[in-house]
Amino acid sequence: MIERIFHFNINCTNLERSLEFYKKLGFQVILDFGEGMESKEMAEAFGMDVADIRGVHLRLGDNPSATRIDLLEFKNPSPTGQPYPHLYHTGIARMCLKTTDIEADYQNLKSQGIEFISEPKLLPGTTVKIVCFKDPDGTFVELLQGDF
């Protein structure tokens, strides 16, 4: 029986750069796979000939059951392609992080050089505010405050 979401994966072109970005959002490293995580079994499970990967697991807070980010930099094969160019692309388009103070988070992240698509916006007919931005490789991230 499927129990919960364990992690979702974000591939990046430079692990250290992306790791610093996600730390700005409050994520903590809870598992570091180190350099040269090469596995024939992982390559086969991913449908690849070879998989030489550098990666970390990140989470928000101290709850061991919290959903993790599996942040990976493929060393071999090298990463290819581009993230989705816009938020209405087919497939998983963005990661949404819930916050209790979107205005403070917006100002804090903006002061650290993160570029936002807009200022926080109140969704019509709700008390929910959202704002979107991109990580260093162009993956969309959303902050959300409020409940539906």
Quick rundown:
This protein has 148 residues and is an alpha+beta fold. Helix content is 18%, strand content 32%.
List keywords for this structure.
148 residues, alpha+beta, 2,3-Dihydroxybiphenyl 1,2-Dioxygenase, domain 1, 5-stranded mixed sheet, 4-stranded mixed sheet, 9 strands, MMCE/EMCE_epimerase
CA radius of gyration: 17 Å
The proportion of residues in beta strands is 25-35%
Low-confidence stretches: none
Domain count: the total is 2
Order of helices and strands: EHEEHEEEHEEE
Output the number of helix runs: 3
Distance between the termini: 28 Å
Mean pLDDT: 89
Structural class: alpha+beta
Number of strands: 9
Q: How much helicity do the residues have?
A: 10-25%
Q: Describe the biggest sheet?
A: 5 strands, mixed
Query: What would the principal axes of the Cα set say about the shape?
Result: globular
Structure notes:
By secondary structure, the protein is of the alpha+beta class. It folds into two domains: 7-76, no CATH class; 94-145, 2,3-Dihydroxybiphenyl 1,2-Dioxygenase, domain 1 (Roll). The chain has helices at residues 15-24, 40-45, 102-111; strands spanning 7-11, 28-32, 37-38, 52-59, 68-76, 94-98, 121-122, 129-134, 140-145. The strands form two sheets. Strands 1, 2, 3, 4 and 5 form a five-stranded mixed β-sheet that branches. A four-stranded mixed β-sheet has the order 6-9-8-7, with no helix packed on it. A hairpin with a 6-residue loop joins β7 and β8 (129-134). The longest helix has 10 residues, at 15-24. The mean pLDDT is 89. This is VOC family protein. Residues 4-146 form the VOC domain.
